Amino acid sequence: MSPQSTHPPTSETFSAAAAVELAVIERSGFVESRHLGSAVVVDPDGAPLIELGAPAEPVLTRSSLKPLQALACLEMGVPLAGESLVLATASHRAEEGHVEVVAGMLDSVGLGPEDLQCPAVAPADRGDRMRVRKDGTLVSPLHFNCSGKHAAFLMAQQLGGHDTAAYLDPDSAVQRQVAATVAEYCGGPSDFVGVDGCGAPVHALPLTRLAAGIGRLAAGTTEHARTLRDAVLAHPWAIEGHGRPNSVVVEKLGILAKFGAEGVMVMGTPGGHAVAVKCLDGSSRPTTMVALELLVTAGALPAEQVVPVLAELDHRVTGGIGGDGEPAVVGALRSSSAVLTAAEQLGRR
Fold first, then answer.
1. In terms of C-beta density within 10 A (0-12 exposed, 13-18 middle, 19 or more buried), how is residue 323 classed?
2. CB 101 within 8 Å of CB 83
3. CB hemisphere CA count around 85 (13 angstroms)
4. Rounded-to-5 percentages of helix, strand, coil across the chain
5. What global pTM score does this model have?
6. What is the model's pLDDT at position 154?
7. Domain ranges of the chain
8. Which residues pair with 274 in a beta bridge?
């Protein structure tokens, strides 16, 4: 069953005129590309500390909302814990461990991969594609990056005695709970609900309200929020994959991090500070760097911890081969002046 938009598609993302430059790609001293967007950092009460661009305008949250969608399943009594709870929150790479956990989630309520309504795809990484090809299961809905979220939705419907075939319908029990959880944590209902790439309802929210909701969750303001946050921090590999940006940030910095398609990123600290970023061109390339640097600027993370993480994620630009036989570094992804001077806003608040 394919969900339908619950509002006329009249809303839109902020314009380029309202955006600011968030980052640039520099090659051989020449600025080659520019990423425009908006960003906001909020304090533990949800009040903005830093605002860049148009963070009060709605954006489609995409997978950055998954922590709140998983939280909604907990609030319905779904027995998610540990890795299964993280997979409900994840945009995974279909590593072997990811697939095994999602399959187990479905099996625990008497369901299987055939009940998933997300697309069937191959794993994201070559090694995993080679592994599953030998088993004759190259393409499967279990491999889709949102399959853990879909499995959690199915569990909620099944355990509540609701129609599992309708789990993507905005009027289904689980999607009504998602809407209620979003409203509770983000200070009101979504501005717009459409259809995400996986087929599930996708909610539009201003970045400021999205960041506030993620901050409340990351701070563990309820028992369910603490359960989810602690699971993610205990199993960082599961939220994206070994060596992937979200997993590295969670593991090395002990904060919640979740990207969404089309250039969306949220991060929340256990202290309740949070950041939300939207890159207007839909690129995720600058979002981790921008989000972390803004959290440092706001005093929510220590720079000495963030610098090695950014180095590990490697934002260098290469060209040709150097004398050591390795790719020669000729530039880098760099934050814009708007991001680097954001500290000036702190003194005005």
1. exposed
2. yes
3. 25
4. 40, 20, 40
5. 0.94
6. 99
7. 20-346
8. 42, 268
